[in-house]
């Protein structure tokens, strides 16, 4: 059984950062050149989370699982997810529910053998392949908690004005 406490904590930190940005009084914090705005970041994480839930569900049923994050970087798809969620609040609500589902599915439900399932994975960031090989399912889940979610939490907090960012990180 996998302890999903770090994953739950990482989602909580991301959602807290998203709420801080949304409540900052700046109705549309402008991202640095080449970066996403808050809604795009949340849509990206929602797509990545959905793909992870799909991989976990596939492993639990014995079906072939794959993991490819390219669609989570597609601008049209990000905008579609934003529109479907309806608002920044809708995106945060979606992510909160997805996090609950993933923590329930990715932890106590899976056996050690299922967590060790090798999943062909293609993970890109800024147009470069970070991973292009089979990865144990447990490593995909741990990667969310240790790298993906903290990275996007920092990305969200970077949208705050300097004084608000300092206050949010203390």
What is this structure's SSE topology?
Elements (H helix, E strand, L loop, with lengths): L4 H18 L15 H24 L5 E2 L6 H11 L2 H19 L5 H4 L2 E8 L2 E9 H21 L4 H7 L2
Parallel strand pairs: 1-2
Antiparallel strand pairs: 2-3
Helix pairs in contact: 1-4, 1-6, 2-3, 2-4, 2-6
Uncertain regions spanning at least 5 consecutive residues: none
How helical, in percent, are the residues?
55-70%
Tell me the number of helical segments per DSSP (H or I, 4 or more residues long): 7
At CATH level 3, the topology is Four Helix Bundle (Hemerythrin (Met), subunit A)
Name the CATH superfamily assignment.
Answer: dinb family like domain
Structural classification: mainly alpha
User: What's the CATH class label?
Assistant: Mainly Alpha
Work out the number of β strands.
3
| Subunit arrangement of the protein | single chain
- Tell me the fraction of residues in β-strands, as a range: 5-15%
**Element-by-element helix/strand order:** HHEHHHEEHH
Task: Give the overall form.
Answer: globular
How many domain modules?
1
- Lateral arrangement of strands in the main beta sheet: 1-2-3
Radius of gyration: 16 Å
Mind telling me which CATH architecture this is?
A: Up-down Bundle
Task: Note down, in words, how this protein is organized.
Strands 1-2-3 form a 3-stranded mixed sheet. The protein has a single domain, classed as Four Helix Bundle (Hemerythrin (Met), subunit A) (Up-down Bundle), CATH 1.20.120.450. It is mainly α and 170 residues long. The model has no long low-confidence stretch (mean pLDDT 91). The chain is 61% helix and 11% strand. It contains 7 helices and 3 strands, in the order ααβαααββαα. It has helices spanning 5-22, 38-61, 75-85, 88-106, 112-115, 137-157, 162-168; strands at 67-68, 118-125, 128-136.
